[in-house]
Amino acid sequence: MTKIVFATNNSHKLAEIRAMLPQGIDVLSLADINCHVDIPETADTLEGNALQKAQFIYENYGYDCFADDTGLEVDALDGAPGVHTARYAGEQHDTEANTDKLLSELKEKNSRRARFRTIIALIEKGEVHLFEGVVDGEIATERRGADGFGYDPVFIPEDTGKTFAELGVSVKNKISHRARAVCKLMNYLRERK
Fold it and tell me: Residue 156 pairs with which residues in a beta bridge?
């Protein structure tokens, strides 16, 4: 059994990742390794934040580790919220306030094109590997659907006509930005065995 730490305190992300992984890979949470500190995310890119989190665990706890950072990039907002996606409406990471702010800022915009981008940084035996997943789509004019979290009720992936929250977790886990990045991570982990 391969043990690897996923450097996140987000229980939704942890559950999504564990549901996607094949047997033989045991993903440990930060709580599993008794890491109860707030890991810094001070970089100005998704890649930088993901790497910063993975390095923190590797250097301070000695585990092979992966971390992700995800950004919602909206064309009409010059790529915002981007690296500030989780704290778009403030440091409190309030998903409802973040979504409210996004919908408000897009009210007068013609284009609603957007993409979700996830970067996963893996540190394994001191080596760094980066994996990217992208899903293009657009922002709905109002919340739709009950499944998912964060911006899921307003993000409509291309060619679906439904928000992630309407599609449901099982569909999202197959087509999302995180799923695409995790697939690349899993392919790498399988090949290096």
Answer: 138
Q: Which of 70, 50, 72, 44 is nearest to 136 (CA)?
A: 72
Pick the catalytic residue: 26, 38, 44, 69? Answer: 69
Could you tell me which of 9, 18, 6 has the C-alpha nearest to residue 179?
A: 18
Please list the residues that pair with 139 across neighbouring strands: 155
Cβ atoms 175, 135 nearer than 8 A = yes
- The one-letter amino acid at 40: P
* Distance in angstroms (rounded) separating the CA atoms of residues 188 and 131: 9
Q: Could you report the per-residue pLDDT of 13-55, keeping only the tens digit for each?
A: 888 788 777 777 888 999 999 999 988 889 999 999 999 999 9
Phi, psi of 57 (to 5 degrees): -70, -45
- pTM comes to 0.88
- The 3-state DSSP class for residue 124 equals strand
Q: Identify whether 94 is a catalytic site residue.
A: no
